[in-house]
Amino acid sequence: MIPYRWLPAFAFALPCAAMAQSSVTLYGIIDAALTYQTHANAAGDSFIGLQQGNEGFLSGSRFGLKGTEDLGGGAKAGFTLENGFLINNGKLDQQGQLFGRQAFVKIGNQYGDLALGRQYTTANTILYYVDPLGIGAAPSNSWMVYLTGQRYDNAVSYTGTFGPVMGIAEYAFGGVAGSFQARSSTSLGLKYSADPITLVGDAQYTHDSASRTARIYIAGVKASVGSAKLFANYIYSHRDAGFDSSNGGTDTASITSMSTAATPTNTAAINSVFASSRRDDFFTLGASYLATPAVTLTASMMYDRTRADAFNGTRATAYGVADYAFSKPTDAYLALAYDWVHGDWSGLFGNSTTAYTGGSGKPLNGHDNQTTVMVGLRHSF
């Protein structure tokens, strides 16, 4: 028999004993690289320092918290809060947002997860599976995200996995009074994975603050062949005349991160707003090879052609990485990248034009190529 004086404490403990297990995990990645880069300004001077565009070559530096709770009966709840930061100066990344990489709560069961908050676009998630670096970090290897966007605020997503098939459906609310469409996005991504092949596809429709539309379609494949992996993907992007993912330059976060942001070596940015409709065709071919249990070699070629009224230009990148793993969480790498532009994108690198509009006839005043060498150290926890 329980003594009467113990009853309040015993009664309070009962719900706790019945509660399911929960946990919170701290995780992160720090990627820093000594960098040499040519054509860092309009005069053609070189740059020596840390990072390229404030990023390491392989990963954006971050730390985050993930929480999970078993609700019983196969149901579970959880959250992710992920911060991005700049290792070279300690500042916040992603427009200065505290949890700019991810911030969402979710609930789910064996039939899938429902998540609400700031999340990756389906295009970014789907490309991860068919890109040689899982979408890198430095501008030289990740500039495809100016087409796809990386994250949306105000997003609701469903993710379900059924055998070899994973599907993601996402809707991001625009939050504009009087217009359900403005700044909103609707997308669907699919992945089929059965060794040795992974196939992906994605369709994404994004609206700016004036309800102009960017349409993105993606197809890609990854194939494992012994110690090698082969990658290929294609992105089709079509933007309405005047489409502006920055909401007129006042907010690059709420709609999407569909830009290679202006940097000291790329002031105009290839994301320039076009007065006419714009089409981009982007291709990636790449491979990685596990040379030894500790050494991975990766090489890739990226190419994009931009067409609009009175505009026809291309940008391309070739890069290679030799990565040595000291352990599972710690590795060092040597990365080489060569970027070049042609046609109406000529003069993109190191220019000082801050208000360039594609197709306007106003020439860029930089250089047509840029070479980058990075020696990096990365640690995850």
Automatic annotation (TrEMBL):
Spans traversing the lipid bilayer: none
Cell compartments where the protein resides: Cell outer membrane
Membrane topology: Multi-pass membrane protein
Coiled-coil segments: none
Major localization listed first in the record, in broad terms: membrane
Gene Ontology annotations of biological process type: monoatomic ion transport
Keyword Kinase assigned: no
Signal peptide: 1-20
Top-rank taxon, per record: Bacteria
One Gene Ontology term of the molecular function aspect: porin activity
Keyword Transmembrane part of the UniProt annotation: yes
Keywords: Cell outer membrane, Ion transport, Membrane, Porin, Signal, Transmembrane, Transmembrane beta strand, Transport
Domain Porin: 11-339
One Pfam match: Porin_4
A GO cellular component annotation in the UniProt record: cell outer membrane
Oligomer and partners: Homotrimer.
Protein name: Outer membrane protein (Porin)-like protein
Provenance organism: Caballeronia choica
